[in-house]
Amino acid sequence: MSRLFRLALLLLLGCCPPLVIGAEDLSGDDMRSLDGQVQEIKSDVLDIASELSNLEERLLYPTNTHIALFVAMSENEKFRLDSVQIEIDGELATHHIYSFQELEALQKGGVQRIYTGNIVTGNHELRVTMLGKFENGKDFNESDTFSFAKGVKPKALGITLAGPGLGASGIQVGDW
Amino acid sequence: MIRARLYVTRLALLSLLAASPGHGEELQDLYFGEALFYAHQGQYFEALERLDTEVKQHGELDEPNLDSLYFHIDDAEFSLGDFELRYRMHHRAGRAIQAVLEGAVDELVRNDAAYRLARIHFQKGQTADAMRALDRIDGKVPHAIRDDIEFLRANIHLAEGRPTEALDILRPLQGSAGFGGFAAYNLGIAYLRDGQRQAALDQLDRAGQFAARDSAELAIRDKSNLVLGTILLEDGEYERAVPYLNRVRLDGPFSNQALLSAGWASLSTKNFERAVVPWRILAEREVTDPATQEAMLALPYAYGKLEIHGRAAISYGDALDAFTVEVGRLNASIESIREGKFLEALIREEIRKDKDWVVRLRSLPETPETYYLMQLLASHDFQTGLQNYLDLADLKNKLRTWDASFDSFDEMVDIRREHYDPLLPDIDTEFRELDSRFRLRVEQHRMLVKRRDDLLTTPRPEFLATRDEQAILRRIEQIDAQLQMSDAPSGQASERLRRLKGLLVFTLETEYHERFTEFDRNLRGLDESMAVAREQYDQFVHFRQAASHSYVGYEKPVRRLRAKVRDAVATIDLLMARQGRLLEIVAVEELIARRTRLESYSDKARFALADSYDRATQAQAKADQE
Questions:
Q1: Are strands A112-118 and A122-133 parallel, antiparallel or unpaired?
Q2: Is A108 within 8 Å of B20 when comparing Cβ atoms?
């Protein structure tokens, strides 16, 4: 019985459960060696991903027609953003429904690339519509239209969203 | 494990602090913001891909201070290390954090980095390196990690067998808001390892009554009581052990072990009736738990001591049946793992979306009994191996998707080539002609601007003469020259010529300002036209370049990337096979150990069952005789 108690004590005091010590001893070194190799391949794949996204961007979105739209939320906003719809020159560019995780990421200061596409140089019209809920559960729906000019360089527009206030638009658009 | 869970929570909090622009600092770089968007959702591969590229590009700039990332570069480099850590790339994370440490960064940032580096080393079991990293902390320390640093320092001392040093650190941590319960427990362990038994018991007693605020603290409180009870049990102080074991909550993670030990403590003092109580509760719990299995044998043993041999025989029978079923399950599980079903189940998408995916594995058909693997799954090496296997599977999926897109790229390039190749030569010919004309006009414009600028400093009225006036002036000069060379008297003619020139000069001089203003106005108009022409010219050049760039120069990068992707897939296949095989071996070994234990229990149960029947029969016979 004392052996049992010793085992129990080891189980409680030790960093690792004793039942797995044997198995770990057998494989620990191999696991660690493989871990190093896995880290290396992760690094390689990250490099490939970076190279590939660069290539994709050049191929799919040439600089003279490249437009990217980003969505951010104003600081300390507590409203629940349900979806955002964006039209460029009256044509639907994108419609995004937010998951809880995405909403939380925006609230923590993340910036979402909501649309990447191509448009011709010149003047254009951007219409942003957001649907959401206030903290009190009441639904809201707000739209606003903005003009912008596209030159030969890539265009990046930032859309900042806030809960609609009295008379103030909750949607702001600006160059980044 | 609980401590590890707290670490994870703190890690999340820390990463939130680190991975956001500093307080009151507005986000200036949207690509950094984009990386944060992914990181906040736990998508560290995507976050790393974006931030790594952005930081690299920033580093290559001649004037980085003009780049928007310049405002966040310390945060960005720090976050890079943090994301790498989260994506289980400790080697790179260590390097990234080391770079922060060696860079000219704020004291708070450097000390935070040193702490993180220490934590990486500690997780990898490199305790000496961990301590060296902590020793680099000097000056101001972020308030949020002050206790974390000290708690880690104490753990390193404990891990390196220096409990006395750990004691000095842990004592002041007793009042820590985040570590109070954990520090109290660890202090008890430090006393124990320092050979101060009584102090250890007193401290564990205090830790066992700690006012817990959440489930993690409740669990550490239970653990303190369980350890205290077990120490007393081990030392033969059975009666003293019972109250501490009874303090452990019945619904906590340590309740099974506490119930089992409480039963043994009572049994050791020959209080068989009291021993039956915890063991009866435990024997009805999850049969796969080792404590439950032990209680299923201990309970009829206690009945036997109480001379209730009939009930003991029934309980031994129940235990034997349960063990037989479990051995059957274990055999099936071992077989299932050997057939590769464990690894197949692990990478099923629908399972991994669930945060309790390991538990849900059990509900899948033909998958091994994962409950038996739960302890194994909690071990660091196995978990690392498992997570690596899943990461490799994810990487392989990504690479396969990318590989499929290369054919589309090739096709896209071919279509563009077919479209542009016949058009561009004619366009280029036409452009060359226009280009030479445009350059000429640019030169003319430049000359005119220069003339205007010269006239501003040195007025030259004759430069603003009209075409006719210029012709007259030239004619006057010719006649004047002829008159000079002629032998005939020319006084009257010269006088007339002088008057004519005077008239013209008078006009040029008196109208100079008016003419200069007109010239300037016209030139400004020309500036505007030239600007429009320049813009159109630039646009054309840009579009012309874009046309070439849309299909020229892709073959080599696509070919190279395709080869890289395929090489990476081959490497991943190899690593997955090795990693998977290791996981299977370890899992099978664990299940075999469990089966061996159950088989041994079954043997004991079988003999005890027979013995109980005999005793029950004898008791019955004796009762009948009486």
A1: unpaired
A2: yes
A10 with A72, same domain: the answer is no
Test mutation, A11, A20, A50, chain B, max B CBs within 10 A = A20
Residue B462 to residues B429, B449, B456, B581: CA-CA distances in angstroms? 41, 17, 14, 96
State the amino acid at position B342 in one-letter form.
Answer: F
Angstrom distance (rounded) from CA B126 to CA B447: 74
CATH assignment at residue A96: 2.60.40
Identity of the residue in B42, B91, B590 whose CB atom sits nearest the CB atom of A36: B91
Report the pLDDT value the prediction gives residue B621, as an integer from 0 to 100: 84
B256 near B223, Cβ under 8 Å? no
How many angstroms separate the CA of residue A90 from the nearest CA in chain B? 25
Is residue A111 domain-shared with residue A79, that is, in the same domain?
Answer: yes
Residues A54 and A73 in one domain: no
Q: In what order do the strands lie in the sheet with A80-88?
A: A91-97, A80-88, A122-133, A139-150
- In angstroms, what separates the C-alpha of B272 from chain A's closest C-alpha? 16
Per-residue pLDDT, B124: 75
- Out of A59, A91, A106, pick the residue that ends a domain: A59
Task: Tell whether A52 and A70 lie within a shared domain.
Answer: no
Q: How close does chain A come to B371, measured CA to CA in Å? A: 14
**Whole-structure pTM value:** 0.72
What pLDDT, on the 0 to 100 scale, is given for residue B370? 63
Using pLDDT thresholds of 50, 70 and 90, give the confidence band for residue A96.
very high
Q: How far apart are CA B91 and CA A39, in angstroms?
A: 7
Q: Are residues A94 and A23 in the same domain?
A: no
Q: Which of B7, B13, B16, B41 should be substituted to probe chain A, the one whose Cβ sees the most A Cβ atoms within 10 Å? A: B41
- Plot region of A76 (φ>0 → left; ψ -120 to 50 → alpha; else → beta): left
| Distance separating alpha carbons of residues B400 and B346, to the nearest angstrom | 19
Residues of chain B contacting residue A43, judged by C-beta atoms under 8 Å apart:
89, 92
pLDDT at B21: 43
Residue bearing tokens 């159950």: B598
Closest residue in A to B582 (Cα) is A27
pLDDT at B78: 81
Question: What is the Cβ-side half-sphere exposure of residue B363, based on CA atoms within 13 angstroms?
Answer: 9
The token pair that represents B403 in the structure block: 């590989």
| pLDDT value of residue B350 | 58
Q: Could you report the per-residue pLDDT of A41-85, keeping only the tens digit for each?
A: 999 999 999 999 889 888 889 888 899 999 999 888 888 999 999
Which residue segment(s) compose the domain that A22 sits in? 2-59
A92 and A25 inside one domain: no
pLDDT for A135 equals 83
Residue A125: band (very low, low, confident or very high) from pLDDT cuts 50, 70, 90: very high
What span, in angstroms and rounded, lies between the C-alpha atoms of B491 and B295?
Answer: 144
Q: Cα-flanking dihedrals φ and ψ of residue A142, to 5°?
A: -135, 140
Q: Which of A44, A59, A74 is the last residue of a domain?
A: A59
Helices (H) and strands (E) in chain B, counts: 26, 0
Same domain, A49 and A70: no
A80 lies in the same domain as A154? yes
**pLDDT at position B522, please?**
93
User: Is residue A16 predicted with pLDDT exceeding 50?
Assistant: no
List CB contacts (< 8 A) between B384 and chain A. 31, 35
Sites in chain B below the pLDDT cut of 50: 1-24
Q: What is the DSSP letter of B340?
A: T
- Give the length of chain B: 626
Q: Which of B33, B89, B550 sits opposite A110 (nearest CB)?
A: B33
To the nearest whole angstrom, how far is the Cα of A69 from the nearest Cα of chain B?
A: 10
